[in-house]
Amino acid sequence: MRFLFPFILVGVIPTQAATLDLAPGNYTVASQIILPHLDAMRREVETSQRCVTGPTPRELFSVFDQPALRGCDFAFPRATTQAVEYVLRCQSARVATGTLTLQRAGEDTVGVAAIKMGGKNMTFTQRVVARRVGACAE
């Protein structure tokens, strides 16, 4: 699977639960959905404002606004030398499986969610680059 801005994950720090301190607030998010068989999707980047309030990075990813992924969240964060990786947990494993990886890139947070829907034999990816721009609007 190719990404427009590839990155490398190296090494695992075992026994340490980890998080990436994602401060609550309003983020400008550049998002890209990548489907393995649609090269045209790789050129489409959507920019939006997203309010992050919870402890997991779920709110940065617009794909989790879809009804099919309701009841899915992230668990078991583990740190690598450059990132934090979460496992996607849904109420039923038949809904979806996957991972979400976050890392810092200067002032930005870069995330990649790789998701396999139910019995489908295809993984799609949403890649985001997010920058905190202030508090959430009331």
List its traits:
single chain, 138 residues, mainly beta, Lipocalin, 8 strands
Portion in beta strands:
over 45%
Shape: globular
Q: What's the alpha carbon Rg, rounded to whole Å?
A: 15 Å
Strands in their spatial order, largest beta sheet: 1-4-5-6-7-8-2-3
Q: What would the CATH topology be?
A: Lipocalin
Biggest sheet character: 8 strands, antiparallel
Measured between the Cα atoms of the first and last residue, the distance is 39 Å
Question: Given the structure, what is the number of helices?
Answer: 0
Mean of residue pLDDT values: 81
CATH class designation: Mainly Beta
Estimate the helix proportion, in percent.
under 10%
How many distinct domains? Answer: 1
Count the beta strands.
Answer: 8
What is the correct CATH architecture?
Beta Barrel
The helix-and-strand class reads mainly beta
Could you give a short description of this structure?
With 138 residues, the chain is mostly beta strands. The protein is built from no helices and 8 strands.
Structural features, described:
- With 138 residues, the chain is mainly β.
- The chain has one domain (12-133): Lipocalin.
- The protein has no helices and eight strands.
- An eight-stranded antiparallel sheet has the order 1-4-5-6-7-8-2-3, with no helix packed on it.
- A hairpin with a 2-residue loop joins strand 6 and strand 7.
- The radius of gyration is 15 Å and the shape is globular.
- The relative contact order is 0.27.
